[in-house]
Amino acid sequence: MTAVQEKPKAVVPAGPPPRRRGKRATALAGTDKLVLALMLGIPTVVHLLFVWIPTLGSVALSFSRWNGIGGLEDIEWIGVGNYVEIFTEYPRFWPAVQHNLIWLLFLLIVPTSAGLLLAVLLDREIRFSRIYQSALYLPMVLSLALVGFIWQLIYTPDGGLLNSVLGLGDDPVDWIGDSDINLYAVLVAAAWRHTGYIMLLYLAGLKSVDPALKEAAALDGASSAQTFFRVTFPVMKPVNIVVLVVTVIEALRAFDIVYVINKGRNGLELLSVLVTDNIIGEASRIGRGSAVAVVLLTISLGFIITYLYQVFSKENRT
């Protein structure tokens, strides 16, 4: 007798596992609500007290004449009189604007170019690159006031490091006291601190560039310089925008270093120094100082809004 062969059973493909119903978000407990309220409420209150309220107060006081003595009832509202005064009758305003523009152009050209060059060199993974990165970024950790103290010792006419290195001991140069050169001497100190920050930004940008783009350019016969300027640098457009905004803000808010050196006088006048001199000076002019502060705020907002527009428009496109 022949064995009856059993027909193989058809294998039924297993379907996808049944989906689990997501658990509904449970209501926060009382302690969680308190913690959340504190985490959101305290930073919000601090931000309002120390940023927005003083900012709006400065905008309002820029339309007034007040010496800070007495109550709010002593404030005299004069409209745009302070703005007319600083633009037409205040002799220190336009030199300060000129110095801020020089500060901005110098930071855009010298530290930015040096930071980009250092980033390109360090991106090649040279030996001891980590040590070089730390050493070059170290000045950024220091405050501008401390940088001013350090370079004040370097620029000291009698026994200063710079005059000694240059062999000018017999006929020393007063790098800080001479109004023709002190601005550029301080700019060198500011650039010494700013270069490390720009280097770090560009180094992060270079690390994020797709290596396939460089390989494709090399296969097309492009040299290293052509690859950088035609492929790598255009791809780093977001980093370039960040560097521009950071440099503009750094140039406009420069205050500590010049105030430490000579209180922003004798060729080192800046808009930030004028704000301080008018508000807390001997003859307190709250309104005029606030008007200068509003001018600074308006210039800064122009670049900040442009940067935010670029960021959010990019997010919307992606």
Automatic annotation (TrEMBL):
Membrane topology value: Multi-pass membrane protein
Listed PROSITE patterns: ABC_TM1 (PS50928)
Transmembrane residue ranges: 34-53, 101-122, 134-154, 181-204, 239-261, 291-312
One Pfam family from the record: BPD_transp_1
UniProt-listed CDD domains: TM_PBP2 (cd06261)
Domain ABC transmembrane type-1 span(s) in chain numbering: 97-307
Name used for this protein in its record: Carbohydrate ABC transporter membrane protein 1, CUT1 family
Lineage summary: Bacteria, Bacillati, Actinomycetota, Actinomycetes, Pseudonocardiales
